[in-house]
Specification:
The protein is α+β, with helices and mostly antiparallel strands. The protein folds into 2 domains: 41 residues; 92 residues, GMP Synthetase, Chain A, domain 3 (2-Layer Sandwich). 30% of the residues lie in helices and 24% in strands. Strand 1 and strand 2 form a beta hairpin. It comes from Syntrophobacter fumaroxidans (strain DSM 10017 / MPOB). This is OsmC family protein.
């Protein structure tokens, strides 16, 4: 298969809002009112957890379809923690990013515990965002002229 090219543009909106655009879609990102925003949308870290959950759920569906597993319902819950100190310029030894992310799957299926573990391992190996977040990914940040 050919690689998929992903491109997103994020523009500054009113107050603390951010407008993210990809293909024909737009999402408003914001911060809670207690942090100076309007609470008009999720924060960027919340969007990352939403994207991870969506990617995991999508790969679960693909796996189930390919393996002819009946999944009556799927729920993915993502939890994580971020210390915002560095983002606000407060010196700390803690990292700026998530200190942890946990993904909990709730599958309504007839899979045995052994089959669930096999499913989980294959999911981890196939999920693009699991791979991106679980392994070092080169990141370049530069200025446009």
């Amino acid at each position: 298969m050919e690689p998929l090219q992903v491109s997103t543009v994020v523009l500054a909106g009113a107050n603390r809002r951010m407008l993210a655009r990809t293909r024909d879609h737009e999402i408003t990102l914001d911060v809670p009112k207690e942090r100076g925003g309007d609470n008009a949308g999720p924060t960027p870290p919340e969007c990352l957890t939403m994207a991870l959950g969506g990617c995991v759920l999508n790969i679960c569906r693909v796996l189930a379809m390919q393996k002819r597993i009946v999944l009556d319902d799927i729920q993915v819950t993502i939890k994580g923690e971020i210390d915002p100190s560095k983002a606000f310029g407060i010196p700390t030894e803690k990292r700026a990013g998530f200190t942890n992310l946990s993904v909990r799957l709730k599958l309504d299926s007839e899979l045995t515990e052994t089959e669930k573990e096999e499913f989980r391992l294959e999911l981890i190996g196939r999920c693009p965002l699991c791979d991106t977040l679980g392994n070092a990914t080169p990141l370049q940040i530069s200025f446009e002229n």
